[in-house]
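User: Can you help me understand a structure? I only have the sequence.
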Amino acid sequence: MLKTITLICMLSVFTSIKSNKGIYPVKHNETAAAEAASISISPNNPLIEKDQHGQYLNFDITVKNTSSHTLYLATIEASVMDALVKPVFRESISVNGQATGIKSIGNTLLKPGETITIFNPFYALAPDVKITFLQYEFFFDYADSPLQKEKNKKRLAVDFDVSIKKVITPRAYAPKTNFNLPLKGKLIVLDAYNFYPAQNAAAIFRSQSGLGSIVKSTRYAFNLASVDENGNMYKTDPFKKENWYVFGKSVYAPAAGIVVDVQSSVPDNEFSGKVVKSPRIPADADPNHLGNYVIIDHGNGEFSMLQHLEQGSVMVRIGELVGTGQQIGKIGFSGDITFPHLNYRVMNGAKSLAAEGIPSYFNNYKLYKGSSFVPVKKGRIDSGDIVEAGK
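Assistant: Let's start by predicting it. Here is the structure, written out as tokens:
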């Protein structure tokens, strides 16, 4: 269990503007900040995950240009603060960085009224860093004309036109449900929720406010695929669904609960040459392109969704009580995917388009390190891990 972390609710936003006489502060209130840009965080109080390797903060930052200027986001600086408002740790990305600099987060040029959403670029911290609260500062350059844009390329990170501070109060995550891996055999974890997949993968979200804050049931989702002893996910030709080792494998309930939603009639995709060919079905048969799935309510505000199942393979019905390890279906090739795999997520609600994703920890599995493995009694899994349910 994670120790409770004291949270300091500091929700003020600051702004400072640079003139030809230097940088000076203006009114420290939300009205002044709105003259430049607004910053929102989703979720408002991000969860802190922790394992022996580090601490992890998965949240989205939405930036809206509320000024009459075109703004270029040149630097983001993050500080971990203690209870006395002293920095414990500070890191930044800027226009002066290399490939991992500000360009790694995508488009950062905002015209008046435009909004961008950024996955937190400082998602991992050392395990011994004590997080009381976070202070993020965003530094903008004006980019109203081609001349300004050209001059901005030569500006240093400490030379900026507008800066805004945002205080974030995360909270420790205490898992409630004891989960088991939903597939047997050796598996590889794909497209989990570290920086690169979380930023680039398609996310299910809905708008919460005018600031564009989002709810993502996929926030802590990951894909699981079976592998052989050499780590291969398929044999010979990958453009035949049957050649993927995971295709047709049994899927098991990761924990006990009540089935609250099922979809089982969506035909599986097929490969047409080297292209995925989706079936022709009525528009209302699978409007969100989820494919076949099962959603289980674990009774404590945690819901499992197991997605991309084979047509007709679902073995449970709505209202049925299932036990841990009970078979619920088989892996297929349904929904918006490019190869067979299981998408697994835990959410705080039964509706995948309206729920927020929450972390899942797994009991009794093997974490492979080449030809050897480490037994894990309880832990998190992430992109690149090769794991296997304990026997």
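Now, to help you interpret it: Residues 1-33, 198-213 have pLDDT under 50 and may be disordered. The CA atoms of residues 22 and 159 lie 10 Å apart. Let me know which part you'd like to focus on.
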